[in-house]
Specification:
Helix content is 21%, strand content 26%. The chain has 15 helices and 36 strands. The N and C termini lie far apart (92 Å).
Length: 728
């Protein structure tokens, strides 16, 4: 090989447009010996040092005024171990030459990444602190198959894309480079000259940390160590376990009073976790914490899928929050958004000048509802990026499960689109077959690699088999939000009680399909925004009736088959809609407000503890023998009564009266005669109710009712739910 480089090639390199820098820079064997070339803009002199003795072997010649230096070392039987000494005029610097290191990505990794079956792509792509040939630095790797040149830029090279162009691995479309001397915490981006010769600055799709918004650079960070899932955490996710989920937006649960600033992850660990433990919730579900540019998206427009948002602290701080929850016996679920991403310039949109991560046709690749882009699930590398991300949060942070956002928008090509605005699949149907395959693959992978972890679908249609295993034709989720139940029951509760008798079926219809999926009953953030009012605000009547209605509704919900989810603020009946820019209205719990909100808070606490203590309320959620109607057709009185049952046959009887009428001597047929204890009454004075009830318990009578030989004569307080349990 000749040691001479033509002027045109040098000009391409020094202007930042040469796609194969390793063919020029670094050390190369030639007919005359070993040519060493480097590009060091603004340097006055560059010398080659013997790495072992630190003696100068050669002073390079500046062959181009832009900063291109070259020279030739004499032939040698052993490879040269060298460093570069650069004189900047006012300082000298000894560095390792990034271009003396060989290829980084192994053939098997490249194959699996291209095939879309690499379980942990984040271990190879992105920025990784490492040591090569006893030299500390960072390896960078990014997928940009249609770019003409990619460089790493950062504060370590004056954000100059000419200084660290990357090696292109044509077989995989991945660009890679090891840069010595870079340390943890340094900022970087990829400067990409795309296929249209447009220069773009992009954040790292696989970055583990990022700058605080509005700045958008990625930050070199250590890959978190793996977290082992304990048996206790697995059991808490089980279908038979009581699962009561507290949904939280970290930025607005509570704020500093003096300046309305956010609590940090560590402050949340000190305040949120003890509160959730005291309230009896078993799980916390976090609205998306992936790095995102716009506060008002609540995290649902993520840019940094692998980076916990910097808003509340560092990656290590976020890990501390999760560890604190686990120590308190609380599982953490993460709201996860693989359905869409924003079009911000520093993100994934048009990453290499093409629709690399998104579908190219807006009829497939653009969400009209959210002004976002849709991942191209047909591309192996995109599926790998997302599926690997799901595993990342579970393995590296100890996340116990993912709530998957907007599943319906993924599985239907015509989601929220009029005729002619969508493209059918290859068979002419409206299903997105590649998205369905991606979901199945991800859920199956989690099941194999993270046994005990769960995925929960927010799926708003009647798509069949959401919680069936993939091998049975299902999507493979463990649970599905029951949005139909939520809408029906809230529509019922907002009615004036005088009209409820005409809409009785809204409270009973859910049991017709309750066992078709493994359901979660969600009262989520979506129900307390955009003019829908708070849960309390939807309840009819005066103050007393509003609070009584809400308490009765919660009592009904906690006893109904299905796991529970309540958005923060609902546990103390916040009166106004949720505002992400401020704290919840904790002042409502002050005595000056009459104890109404404290009463609801006390009830939710007791409901959660009762739910955990009474196996019939959860153990057979998804088995038909776990539920039995006692009174299902009393339209006129708006009364409902049913049994919840566990595997041993133990029962809890639940009776709801959704009118403001005190009903005495209300008879309910029962299966088992005996003394029944009133274990919960939402009308208790402790909850700020009227304190009507059954004086702690009632004995059955041998009087037939509701096709049963024995019955109970009960006092049903106005707007209330009672739980009764037969004494042993």
């Amino acid at each position: 090989m000749s040691g001479t480089i033509d002027r045109g090639t040098i000009q391409q390199l020094t202007s930042g447009h040469y796609a194969d820098p390793f063919s020029i820079l670094g050390i190369h064997k030639t007919a005359d010996g070993y040519a060493i070339r480097t590009f060091a803009p603004d340097a006055t002199q560059v010398s080659v040092l013997d790495k072992d003795t630190q003696k100068i072997l050669l002073t390079l010649t500046q062959t181009d005024q832009t900063g291109f230096f070259s020279g030739t070392l004499s032939p040698s039987e052993t490879p040269y171990r060298y460093q570069l000494m650069i004189d900047w005029g006012d300082a000298q610097q000894i560095i390792e030459d990034p271009y003396r290191f060989g290829p980084l990505l192994q053939e098997m990794d490249a194959w699996l990444l291209s095939e879309g079956t690499h379980l942990r792509p984040y271990e190879r792509l992105g920025a990784h602190l490492t040591s090569l040939d006893n030299v500390d630095g960072v390896t960078f790797a990014v997928w940009a198959p249609n770019a003409t040149r990619v460089s790493v830029v950062g504060d370590f090279n004056f954000w100059d894309g000419r200084r660290h162009p990357m090696r292109f691995r044509r077989e995989s479309g991945i660009w890679e480079l090891f840069i010595p001397h870079i340390h943890e915490g340094q900022l970087y981006k990829y400067e990409i000259i795309d296929c249209n010769n447009v220069t773009r600055l992009k954040a790292d799709p696989y970055a583990f940390a990022a700058e605080m918004r509005p700045d958008t650079a990625s930050r070199v960070s250590q890959l978190p160590s793996r977290v082992t899932m304990t048996q206790q955490r697995r059991q808490a996710n089980d279908f038979t376990a009581p699962m009561s989920v507290y949904e939280v937006h970290l930025g607005s649960w509570r704020r500093h009073l003096h300046d309305n600033s956010w609590l940090s992850y560590r402050e949340l660990a000190e305040q949120l976790i003890p509160y959730v433990k005291d309230m009896g919730f078993t799980h916390i579900e976090l609205l998306p914490i992936n790095e995102h540019p716009f506060d008002g998206s609540w995290g649902y427009q993520p840019v940094g899928m692998y980076a916990p948002t910097r808003r509340f602290g560092t990656l290590e701080d976020f890990r501390y929050l999760i560890e604190t929850a686990h120590q308190a016996g609380i599982n953490i679920l993460l709201d996860w958004v693989p359905a869409h991403f924003p079009s911000d310039d520093h993100g994934l949109a048009q990453f290499d000048g093409t629709a690399q991560f998104e579908y190219s046709d807006p009829r497939e690749g653009y969400h009209q509802d959210w002004n976002t882009l849709i991942y191209n699930y047909s591309r192996h590398e995109v599926r790998n990026y997302l599926a690997g991300n799901a595993l990342y949060w579970m393995e590296r942070f100890g996340i116990d499960g993912l709530r998957v956002d907007a599943v319906a928008s993924m599985v239907y090509r015509d989601y929220s689109r009029a005729e002619g605005e969508w493209i059918p699949n290859q068979y002419g149907g409206n299903e997105n077959l590649e998205a369905i395959e991606f979901i199945r693959y991800t859920n199956k992978t989690i099941g194999i690699e993270c046994p005990g972890a769960i995925t929960v679908a927010e799926e708003s249609t009647d798509f069949a088999g959401v919680t069936l295993p993939p091998e049975a034709g299902g999507l493979g989720f463990h649970y599905k939000w029951n949005l139909g139940w939520m809408h029906d029951t809230l529509d019922y509760m907002k009615l004036d009680p005088v009209y409820r008798q005409y809409h009785h079926n809204l409270m009973t219809f859910g049991m017709y399909y309750a066992h078709t999926e493994n359901f979660v009953l969600p009262l989520s953030h979506d129900e307390v925004v955009h003019g829908k009012r708070s849960l309390l605000g939807r309840m009819p009547g005066d103050t007393w009736q509003q609070f009584a209605n809400l308490r009765a509704y919660y009592g009904f919900m906690w006893a109904h088959p299905g796991k529970k989810l309540l958005f923060m603020g609902g546990e103390f009946a916040q009166g106004r809609e949720w505002n992400h820019d401020g704290s919840l209205d904790w002042h409502l719990l002050d005595p000056i407000h009459g104890g109404w909100h404290n009463g609801v808070q006390n009830l939710v606490r007791d409901l959660n503890h009762c739910y955990q203590q009474q196996a019939p309320l959860s153990q057979l959620d998804y088995a038909e023998n776990g539920f039995e109607w006692l009174v299902v057709d009393d339209h006129q009185n708006s009364v409902f009564a049913f049994i919840r049952r566990d595997e041993s046959g133990n029962e809890v009887i639940v009776i709801s009266n959704f009118t403001p009428v005190l009903r005495e001597n209300y008879r309910v047929g029962i299966n088992l005669p005996g003394q029944y204890q009133e274990i919960l009454n939402t009308d208790s004075e402790y909850y700020r109710g009227s304190n009507a009830g059954n004086l702690g318990g009632v004995h059955s009578e041998e009087i037939p009712s509701h096709n049963r030989a024995h019955s109970l004569s009960l006092v049903l307080p106005p707007l209330s739910t009672l739980y009764l349990q037969r004494e042993a």
